[in-house]
Amino acid sequence: MQTNFSAARLADPMIAESEQILRKCVHCGFCTATCPTFVTLGDELDSPRGRIYLIKDMLENDKPATDRVVKHLDRCLSCLSCTSTCPSGVDYMHLIDNARAHIEENYQRPLGDRLLRKLLALVVPNPTLFRLSMIGAKLAAPFAGLMPGRLKGMVKMGARHMPPPSWVDKPQIIPAIGTRKGRVAILTGCAQQVLETEINESTVRLLTRLGIEVVVAKGAGCCGSLVHHMGKEDKSHHQAKGNIDAWSAEIAGEGLDAIVITASGCGTTVKDYGHMLRLDKAYAAKAAKVSELAKDITEYLAELDVDGAVFAKASHGSPRVAYHSACSMQHGQNITRPPRDLLKKAGYDVVEIAEGHLCCGSAGVYNLLQPEIAGKLQERKRGNIRATRPDLVATGNIGCMVQIETDDLKVIHTVQLLDWAAGGPVPAKLQDRFAEVTPAL
Hints:
Elements: H1 7-10, H2 13-24, H3 36-41, H4 48-60, H5 67-74, H6 81-85, H7 92-106, H8 111-123, H9 127-140, H10 149-157, E1 172-174, E2 182-187, H11 192-195, H12 197-209, E3 212-216, H13 225-228, H14 233-252, E4 258-261, H15 264-270, H16 273-276, H17 284-293, E5 294-296, H18 297-304, E6 320-323, H19 327-330, H20 337-345, E7 349-351, H21 366-369, H22 371-386, E8 392-395, H23 398-404, E9 411-413, H24 414-421
Parallel strand pairs: 2-3, 2-4, 4-5, 6-7, 6-8, 8-9
Antiparallel strand pairs: 1-3
Helix pairs in contact: 2-4, 2-7, 4-7, 9-10, 12-24
C-alpha cells in the first residue's frame, strides 16, 4: 500500500510503526474470507482490508476519528484470523492497537458508551470488584429480559455458578512433589479466578505432580489486555509493569523457567509486553525477558515432553472431545498442535470443529460491547460444535468457555482434562455425567 505520511507525522514512533505495517498490505483480500465480521455482515468496511483503509486515512492525515470510523473499528474482534491468512505478513494486531489508542485520545464517545467502558475497565481486571458485580448481576438476573442489549449480557453472566475464592489466588510458593525439576510463575488472572477457580487449581496440581514448583508472585495481577484493546495504553502499561516487577523479582531471585498462563487471551498480551514497552528505557529489557518466558500451559507441557505414562491410569473412559482453539491461541500465539496432542496423549477422542478459524464472539469484553454480532458468532460456533456430537468441549481461554457453554455443551479447560487424566478430580461440571469415574491416584 502506498502511503504519504509527512516527516512530522513519522517522528511519532507509533505513526512510524503504523506506516511500515500499512505499506505491507497489497490489497489482495485474502483476509476477508476469514474475518468473522465480514463473513457475518458482508460489509467491506467490516473486513481487515476495509479497516486498514480507514486507519490509513485517519493516521496519515492526523484526523480525529469519525463516528463511521469508530463504528467499524469497534466491530473488530482482534481475533487475528486475518494475520494467520495474510500472505504479506501485515502486522494487523499492532495496527489496530495503534488505531484504538488514537481513537481513545481523539474521539469523544457517547456518554453511555463512555460509562460502560469505564465500568468494565474498572471492574473486570479487579477480582474483588468483579466478584461483587457478579453477585449484583445474580440478583438482577430475573430482570435481564427487560434490560438493554449490553446490560442484558452483563446480567446474564451473573446467572453462572460462582465458586468461592481459591487457595491458589494468594501469593505463595507451592512446592513440587518429589524432586524439583523446574520452577515457574503462574498468572492467576482476573476474571478467571472469579469465574472458574478450578483452572488454576488443576494447573498447580498437574505441574507439582510433574515436579514443577509453582510461584504465585506477589504484586502480579491483570495482564492489561482488556484495557489495552480499548485503547487505554497508560492503564494497560501500568498493569503490565506491575506484573513485570513481580516476575522480575522472582527471576532475579531463584529464577524462573517459564511464566505459565492458562488464559490464551492473557498469553497473547504478556508475550507482547516486550513490544508494548520497547520505548520505555526502564522497562524495555525486563519486559522483553518476561515475554520470552511467557508460555501457555499446553506450550510449557509440550516442552516438558510429558510422558504418556503420566496418563497411564486415566479412568475417564475416552470421552469424545471437540477442541475449540481460541483465536488468541491459534492466531495470536500460533499454538495449534500442543493442546490437541496432549489431549490425545491423555486418552481423549479429539475431534475437529468446522470453521475452527472463526471466532466464537467472546473476544475479551466484545460480547458485552457488541452483543448482536457476538450473538451471531456464538450461535454459529455452537452449531458447528454440536455437529461433531461431542461429549464435552475443550478450550484454553476463559472467555470462550463463558461464551460457548450451554446446558448441552459442557466446556472444560484443556488443563482440567489433563489433570483429570493424570489422577486429578473429575471437573465439577462433568460430575453428573461421570459420577462413577474416580481419580486414578
